[in-house]
Amino acid sequence: MKAGANLYVGGGIILLIFLLAVFAPLIAPYHPITSANLMYAEEPPSAQFWLGTDEQGRDIFSRIAYGARISLFIGLAVQVMNTAIGVSLGLSAGYIGGWWDEIVQGLTNLMLSIPTIVFALALMAILGPGLLSLLIALGMTDWAYSCRISRAQVLTQKSLNYVQSARIMGFGTLHVMFRELLPNIAGPLIVVATMGVGSAIMAEASLSFLGLGVVPPNPSWGGMLSSAREQLMVAPWVAIFPGLALFAAVLGFNLLGDGLRDLLDPHGKGRK
């Protein structure tokens, strides 16, 4: 029941955020950028401004809705990049072995020894702020976990009969790795990728909070939190609602990943 609850609650949260992002132009009552009006600066939540306004008089709900687009896009795109890099390296290292495996393990250990946000900060300092720089920086920093998991799974699978049969039938290395091995090790990788989306959203928010992510005035949950620091005491809703949106997104992906883990790994249920 717990696994099912995590799956449904997490999936429900992500579905709501996804719908908010897709239908933002229809749901949001104001434009997230051009609706600035200092006459309505720091208005509390009301019937006119559902979640209040920020220091420039922009509607917070509208900016959260449009910011969900950016957060989901970055989270999914970054995780696709991380998964592609990590799985490709892990599959090849586990299957080919030898010197290539040693190189990949060395790179993986190096990446795991450096905090993700520190490495991303270093890359952003070189590339500069912006959406493309943000995707490159985050897409190259968090692939080590999927690499290590895929390599471990390949090492346990490559001696099994179905892999040996594919070799005997004359299939090449790429066919065996991506057509035979990958479908049979996909379960743990799906779980890691799902939880990784939440981590990527949090990393994007952290970089935007520091001024190295999405360039203002584009709506970003991290950027909204950053600009709310000076208004926190007089207008706390400016920070509370973007923070709740960020919390909900990360929680949703973590619960969804936890539910998928129990669903795809029935042996794991017995360990709880």
From TrEMBL:
The ABC transmembrane type-1 domain, residue ranges: 68-257
User: Which segments cross the bilayer?
Assistant: 6-28, 117-138, 190-214, 234-256
Task: Give the top-rank taxon of the lineage listed in the UniProt record for this protein.
Answer: Bacteria
Q: What biological-process terms (Gene Ontology) are attached?
A: transmembrane transport
Enumerate the subcellular locations listed in this protein's record, separating them with semicolons: Cell membrane
Its primary localisation, in coarse terms, equals: membrane
Q: Which InterPro entries match?
A: BP-dependent_transpt_permease, MetI-like, MetI-like_sf, OppC_N
Q: Transport among the record's keywords?
A: yes
Per the record's keyword annotation, is Transmembrane included, yes or no?
Answer: yes
Gene Ontology cellular component annotations, sorted alphabetically: plasma membrane
Q: Which UniProt keywords apply?
A: Cell membrane, Membrane, Transmembrane, Transmembrane helix, Transport
User: Mind telling me which Pfam families this protein's record contains?
Assistant: BPD_transp_1, OppC_N
Stated membrane topology is: Multi-pass membrane protein
Family to which the UniProt record says this protein belongs: Belongs to the binding-protein-dependent transport system permease family.
Its recorded name reads: ABC transporter permease
Task: Name the source organism.
Answer: Gemmobacter aquaticus
